[in-house]
């Protein structure tokens, strides 16, 4: 079946582009007033079904969704520890830049001996390392830290916790 042969459900307008313009309008406000030509939920559902059927008709039923999935991070996350508390050794320290909501943020990151992922440090973990190893990053190289996780209710997620140790790593978790 050709795409143009299917009849398009009406949405208060005779053209798809005009119908699309109406999607941004509210059909009813909290005071009960009605916006003219706003599509009902049933008409929107009917239109979406039409679009899905059209995609099937042209053979677009198998879509590569990998572009919408999260990418593997190059930075260590709480889940990477798999519930363990490995002790790892600092190989080097560098600064990394992140951008969130158009705002740049620079954080220290630790390269860990034998690990691919780097550990970015928040202010609390940075302060712990400064108290234990001093403020100079070169003094952190070769030192061991134990990694763990802690639940942070304010963020509703697990975060990484760094505990300064000494000079001997004992790695149990392959991340």
Mind explaining what this structure looks like?
The protein has 175 residues and is of the alpha+beta class. The protein folds into 2 domains: 65 residues, no CATH class; 87 residues. It is built from 3 helices and 5 strands; from the N terminus they run ααβββαββ. It is elongated and about 65 Å long.
| Average of the residue pLDDT scores | 75
Strand line-up of the largest beta sheet: 3-2-1-4-5
> In sequence order, what are the helices and strands, one letter per element?
HHEEEHEE
**Overall morphology:** elongated
Helix % is: 10-25%
Low-confidence stretches: 11-35
Question: What is the tally of beta strands?
Answer: 5
User: Taking Cα atoms only, what radius of gyration do you get, to the nearest Å?
Assistant: 27 Å
Ends distance: 51 Å
What's the structural blueprint in terms of helices and strands?
Layout: H1 16-22, H2 41-57, E1 87-100, E2 103-112, E3 118-120, H3 123-133, E4 144-152, E5 157-164
Question: What distinguishing features does this structure have?
Answer:
175 residues, alpha+beta, 2 domains, five-stranded antiparallel beta sheet, 3 helices
Q: Can you describe this structure in just a few lines?
A:
The protein is an alpha+beta fold.
């Amino acid at each position: 079946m050709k795409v143009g042969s299917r009849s398009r459900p009406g949405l208060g307008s005779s053209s798809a582009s005009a119908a699309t313009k109406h999607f941004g309008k509210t059909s009813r406000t909290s005071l009960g007033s009605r916006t003219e030509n706003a599509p009902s939920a049933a008409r929107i559902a009917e239109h979406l079904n039409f679009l899905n059927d059209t995609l099937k008709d042209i053979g677009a039923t198998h879509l590569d969704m990998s572009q919408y999935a999260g990418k593997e991070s190059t930075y260590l996350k709480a889940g990477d520890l798999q519930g363990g508390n490995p002790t790892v050794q600092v190989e080097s320290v560098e600064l990394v830049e992140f951008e969130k909501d158009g705002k740049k943020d620079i954080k220290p990151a630790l390269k860990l001996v034998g690990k691919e992922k780097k550990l970015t440090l928040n202010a609390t973990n940075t302060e712990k390392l400064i108290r234990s190893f001093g403020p100079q990053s070169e003094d952190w190289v070769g030192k061991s830290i134990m990694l763990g996780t802690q639940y942070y209710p304010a963020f509703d997620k697990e975060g990484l916790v760094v505990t300064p140790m000494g000079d001997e790593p004992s790695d149990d978790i392959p991340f």
